Amino acid sequence: MDNSYKFRLCCEIERIIFLFANLRPSHMNRVLGKVSFVFRSNLVKIKPVNINSNKMVSVEQVVENNKRSLEIIESLKNELQAIRGELIARKKKELVNENAALKKKVELARSQLIALETKNGKIQITVPGARSMCTNASGENVPPPPAAAAADKEPKAPKEKKAKKEKPEGAKKDAASVAAATELPIDVGRLDMRVGKIIEVGRHPDADSLYLEKIDCGEEQPRTVVSGLVKYVPLEEMQNRMVVVLCNLKPAKMRGVTSEAMVMCASTPEKVEVLSPPAGAVPGDLVHCEGYNRQPDAQMNPKKKIFETCAPDLKTNDALIACYKNAPLHVPGKGNIVAQTLKNVQVK
């Protein structure tokens, strides 16, 4: 066997081994069986050459062996080519089926997304010329989603909001003047002063200069009142005393206790005296002022400062009578409100 033939045979064997390494076990067995068959059927026809023989090797014998070997190699090539084609066709078929399954899944997910968006009120817009893939296995026509049908309809024109009618400036001024006319003048008639009786009194638990009182004002429940009179009036004189109470102040907390009224007093920096109702007055009697209509607010608005406006004109006169702009404060049919000794001083 010449050297060129040996080289070609070795190359083909290496190529066959490489192809074997990339075959599945079943295909490898098939090729090995084919190789075995070919070698059994053809190898016997190849006559071995005795290189140790002293005889000259016949040229015809070498050519015959070479030809047989080439036929074996060609047969193996054809077999491997057939197997490769079969593998490619099978893989192609698998990929086609997998691609079709993926398309169905994508179309199903798209249909579900459209349904969810339609349910949540998102308008679907049909793209002109777009074709939807059919995901129905039976091949029946699938109706378009309701969102697409709704998008085809012409949108309704939005309703125009009615413009608010603006009131003329003259009407605004008239309303303001009416409100000003209905507002009562700030005077003593806006103050709700009544006769009261202190039914319980004691020191404030958190302040040594304050009294904590329960005063009967002729109502269902006595009012809680906090007064800063400890330095001026002994505790014994406060108990069961008849007083004049301002009842329509806004309740305010004083050292943690809500005070619901104020005891009216004649006052100087050095001395304070509690005003006394006339003899015969009872809790709940209303205090009036001559020349002023009694129209008290249910509760005075602190922002309007009604009491602060009236306070400078609340004084006692030479006769110890409490007055507003020299008009006496009194309980009708029973007498005037008076101080004990303080003349011409502020009442507060």
Could you please describe the fold and organization of this structure?
The protein is of the alpha+beta class and 348 residues long. It has a domain at 188-347: Nucleic acid-binding proteins (OB fold (Dihydrolipoamide Acetyltransferase, E2P), Beta Barrel), CATH 2.40.50. Helices cover 37% and strands 18% of the residues. It has seven helices and 15 strands. The protein has a five-stranded antiparallel sheet with strand order 3-2-1-4-7, with no helix packed on it. Strands 10, 11, 12, 13 and 14 form a five-stranded antiparallel sheet that branches. Strands 9-8-15 form a three-stranded antiparallel sheet, with no helix packed on it. Helix 1 (3-21) packs parallel to helix 3 (59-119) and helix 2 (25-42) packs antiparallel against helix 3 (59-119). The radius of gyration is 60 Å and the shape is rod-shaped. The chain starts with a helix and ends with a strand. Mean pLDDT is 78; it is low at 41-56, 132-142 and 147-152. Its main location: cytoplasm. It comes from Stomoxys calcitrans (Stable fly). Residues 151-160, 166-175 have a biased composition (Basic and acidic residues). Residues 187-288 form the TRNA-binding domain. Residues 59-119 form a coiled coil.
